Task: structure prediction
Amino acid sequence: QVQVVESGGGSVQSGGSLRLSCVVYGYTYSSYCMGWFRQAPGKEREGVAAIDIEGSISYADSVKGRFTVSQDNAKNTVHLQMMSLKPEDTAMYYCAASWGPKCWLQLLEGKYYNYWGQGTQVTVSS
Result:
C-alpha cells in the first residue's frame, strides 16, 4: 500500500548543508500531514519539521532558522533543507505521513502519523 521513501542523508562537517527528500507512493488521496522526525541513539524521537495539506508548518525550536520544510505541488513529496548543521543534528531522520485528523493539531507529534519511512542517516562531524 502506502510507501514512504526518504533520501538525501549523508555525512557533513559542522556548518554544512544537506537536503532530504521524501516521496509517498501508493496513496489514494493526499495525506493531511507530512513530517520529518529524528532519533539519535539513546535519545527520544523528536519532531523536526512538518507541514499539513494547507501549508501550515511547524518546526522544533532546535532547528528554527536553520531547517526549512517544503512540499511539492503534488503534495506527495516533501523536502527538508538543512543548513548550518551541528553535531547535535546527527540522527536517523524519518519521514512520516498521516491521514488522520489529529496531526493537524500537533504537527510534530509522531504518534499521529500513520506511515513511516525507513530513515536516512545524517551525521554531522565537528
Q: What stands out?
A: The chain has a mean pLDDT of 96. The radius of gyration is 13 Å.
